[in-house]
Amino acid sequence: MTATAAGEPLLEVEDLRVRLRTPRGPASVVNGLSYSVRRGETVAVVGESGSGKSVSVLALLGLLPARVATVTGAARLDGEDLLGMSPERLRQVRGPGVGMVFQDPMTSLNPVLTIGRQLVEGIRAHGEVSKAEARERAAGLLTEVGLPDPERALDRYPHELSGGMRQRVVIAIALSNSPSLLIADEATTALDVTVQAQILDLVEKLRTDHGTGVIWITHDLGVVAGIADRVLVMYGGRCVEDGTVDDVLERPAHPYTRGLLGALPDLATADEGELATIPGTPPAPTDLPTGCVFWPRCPVRGDARCETEQPPLQVVGAGVTKGLPHRAATWCGEGGAR
To answer: Rounded to whole angstroms, how far apart are CA atoms 257 and 251?
Structure first.
């Protein structure tokens, strides 16, 4: 891992907010999210299901239907406003600008087109290459992501592949145009540990050889510890803690982050009792609590301010590591404002 604190950000997100119209009323899914990703840097986004991780990146790429979603804020890729782009310009950016690995490979692949056609189409959409050249490139990509017998796989349909093999195809499509920014949404969840290691090595190679920025959305804190430079912890659509991977995982300041880490199994004590859990359930985006979004589940909540005032993200603990601040939005816990 080589965090890059210097240089202009590749991606800058400022005060991103996403509101969805639902049968139960307006849902505040993302609430004032701000962060940046620099070239050659991996930012891991973690949190429980429903915390707004996936919706936040779908909003950046214009993939939320306008009839149900309202997106505000700013998001600049290489200085160009993503949220203000026309649909035509967004189609040009998706591919060489941003590659996306979606969470469910079965729904992100066209079931009536062969794997080869889907790969070749993406390659030719962003470069003047022949079908033969694109097919050769497609076979090479399938080899890179560890798919066996790539030439044969090009002529197969998605339903003829296993879930793990489909996921590798989706990753190959995302990498096909050597994107400046790669967004991976649970990219290795369906893969066994050997193939997972291959994919992580491939992403690391992209990062070091081409300066690719990476947003890695995951529940797996073990993967985060191995690949991330910085970590952003989301809860209730908000960032509740961020900082370098060392600061966040070794010195967590927010009670929610400490709860996530406490729920990890410890092989040394696996037979000594039940796994720790965070009591309660995440809040519904249609009915977010006032004050600190985590207070209804917080085991260490303090005075009434927790229930009435929303804490800002502010520097905690020792302050800055590797030139990057460690911040948490909490009124209590280690390093929180008192």
So the answer is: 10
